[in-house]
Amino acid sequence: MIVIDYQNRKPIYEQIVERFQMLIIKGVLEADTQMPSVRSLAAELSINPNTIQKAYSILEQQGFIYPVKGRGAFVSGNQALKEKKTEVFFGKLKELVKEGKEIGISRDLCLQKTAQFYEEVET
Amino acid sequence: MIVIDYQNRKPIYEQIVERFQMLIIKGVLEADTQMPSVRSLAAELSINPNTIQKAYSILEQQGFIYPVKGRGAFVSGNQALKEKKTEVFFGKLKELVKEGKEIGISRDLCLQKTAQFYEEVET
DNA sequence: TATGTGTACTATGTATCATAGTACACTTAG
DNA sequence: CTAAGTGTACTATGATACATAGTACACATA
Fold first, then answer.
1. Structure confidence at residue B40 as a pLDDT band (50, 70, 90)
2. HSE-CB for A36 with a 13 A CA cutoff
3. If you count residue pairs, one on A and one on B, with CB atoms under 8 Å apart, how many are there?
């Protein structure tokens, strides 16, 4: 479920955060589902438990999961999360489109490619 | 001409590289224009000359500039650069659109926002 | 009671980034 | 020829982020 790319410049904890964000937003992990324990996930990925804990604390801070003392961490059922993620997405898109226009990409080509890429995505 | 954002996570040398890439691609710096010298730019930005050198060596490797011993560095007149940058841009766009679709952004909203952001860009 | 859970520490090693300083070969203005 | 400015190549040092290693505590549950 979680894969670490050691070629990636992003730190491990950040990769884990983003992966779980996606799984939760897409509904693969439903509300109140129990998350893998810090220690078990660390063992599974062969990394340090502290790294998992760091990822979980960020996910908790962002409202994606909630911890229960002595029991574990669970997926939060917050509908506002999707809206937040959407907001972040449009922020990125705006930056990228700005860059595209600056390097001389035409409006029409930009739209055409966007549509094309959208179709190409495999579910 | 060059501004360093110390709040940015990106390292200084990378910010300098990207800034010059943009200036060259947009044509602000024309072919065979002399680049600021390593030492003078370092002094102007109040950073270490080694940092500038690192940025310049990357720009040279990417074909954006060419060095002349004892004289300085100059802007390369390579037309292929724009195409390369365009290729990189579409790679990023594809990744972003994929993410958008995964979190449930509709095709139409994606296109609408892209067009909107394109219009909003100030030149 | 024993095990598994989240959480909070300290300490250590590593890699990247940036700085500091020095040095050399080259070009050019004087 | 000389001096100043150029790119280039080193070594050394410090700061920071990242990841690991190890320990410890309170809690829930079989």
1. very high
2. 16
3. 99
Tell me the whole-structure pTM to 2 decimals: 0.85
pLDDT over 80 (residue B79): no
Is B75 within 8 Å of B29 (Cβ atoms)? Answer: yes
* Inside any domain, residue B5: no
**Of residues B61, B44, B58, the one with CA closest to residue B1:** B44
- Same domain flag for A72 and A100: no
B8 touches strand C (CB under 7 A): no
In this structure, are B64 and B106 located in the same domain? no
pLDDT in tens, A22-71: 999 888 999 999 999 999 999 999 999 999 999 999 999 999 999 998 99
Q: CA B14 → C1' D14, Å? A: 21
Say yes or no: B92 contacts chain A, CB-CB below 8 A: yes
